[in-house]
Amino acid sequence: MADLEEARRAKDELKAALAGRAGVTAIGITPEADGYGLLVRVQDDAVRARSADVPSSVHGVHVHVRRSGPVTAQG
Questions:
Q1: What's the whole-model pTM score?
Q2: What's the structural domain count of the chain?
Q3: If the chain, 75 residues long, is cut into consecutive pieces of 10 residues, what is the mean pLDDT of each piece?
């Protein structure tokens, strides 16, 4: 179980670790039944997540990977 501060620290570390990785579109904090976890959005499927080396946890904070569609800028 991670509290919000633990999740924030883990998110910062995960963002640094995944910076510039192809297919990773977003990294955020998500509520869990017993605290908070991290959510990584990827453009394709779990194959893309594995190739991006997304860990299953960061300092005990669970990492969830979800597929997202293509991300485009809105002007």
A1: 0.84
A2: 1
A3: 96 95 90 96 72 87 86 73
